[in-house]
């Protein structure tokens, strides 16, 4: 199919989910009636970097879902609902029309499930499959946000859901040793799903904001790195006990099979796309009931050996673990 026809074909399957969109796909630019404050984030998914390039699990559907989910995760971490998404596709010749349409259809399904409107994008050819998704959410005012720099000394530090599942799922795909792990079919499927089809915690992010959380960040690179962003942005030190990190079922078995510490998969494996939050102790009960596990606290940063950032601890002693880094 020619570029124009391909675009027309997949745009025909996109729906508008709000009354903001004045001009959607088709003109030189999208036109949206703005809310009070725009919250915008962009994320890239590269086949071979974010997903294995030649694995039968990595279908066009998985690529589409994951690219939008990981972008929406940043809006979840800001505590705002999703608004519009803009999708730039770089397509290698090995991706035929059917693949591209399946990718966009999977995105549209997640868009429907999250109230997102795909309002525009771009199609290019290129040497590798790259999907860049820009998402915009709308807040009523600039205070109705979960920022990285809003942690306060004395806050508790918590995480939503369970961690390590994505790294374990990836290991099941790429590390032959992981296949020796004893897992029930359901547990194995849930680990693969966590890696291949993460769910952005949009409703939970908004709920945490309403419940009085101070700061939040989504866990893309792992607590070891992402908690450090909160600490540095806030000028404080997050102290986290790695043995309190909730681990997804099956993580321990995969960690044993690949010879790694299970807490390290949970702290540094990355891509669970859960949220890390800080909140004052008086809110801890209500926030825990919303699905948060407390893993540490926010301390003043003072002195050379207590710089702003994160310190991961085991039995009160610091560990040198680090999360994912693109240019290590
Ligand atoms: N090329 C760039 N130009 C401007 N800002 C950037 C660029 N790359 C990253 N940033 C900013 O740096 C911060 C961290 O980026 P990144 O690690 O991609 O964020 P996240 O983990 O939330 O997706 C973000 O606020 C992002 O907007
Ligand atoms: C094939 C493959 N190898 C390694 C990884 C691990 N990995 C790749 S990117 C990444 C971190 C998250 O991606 P990034 O682009 O840093 O997202 P952001 O922090 O910008 O949200 C991790 C853990 C992977 N997902 N797939
Ligand atoms: Mg990253």
From TrEMBL:
Catalytic activity: thiamine phosphate + ATP = thiamine diphosphate + ADP
EC number: 2.7.4.16
Binding of Mg(2+) 4, residues: 28, 41, 74
InterPro entries xref list: PurM-like_C_sf (IPR036676), PurM-like_N (IPR016188), PurM-like_N_sf (IPR036921), ThiL-like (IPR006283)
Positions bound to Mg(2+) 2: 43, 74
CDD domains assigned: ThiL
The entry's keywords: ATP-binding, Kinase, Magnesium, Metal-binding, Nucleotide-binding, Thiamine biosynthesis, Transferase
Binding site for Mg(2+) 5: 221
Extra facts: Reaction mechanism of ThiL seems to utilize a direct, inline transfer of the gamma-phosphate of ATP to TMP rather than a phosphorylated enzyme intermediate.
Protein name: Thiamine-monophosphate kinase
Organism: Patulibacter medicamentivorans
Gene (UniProt): thiL
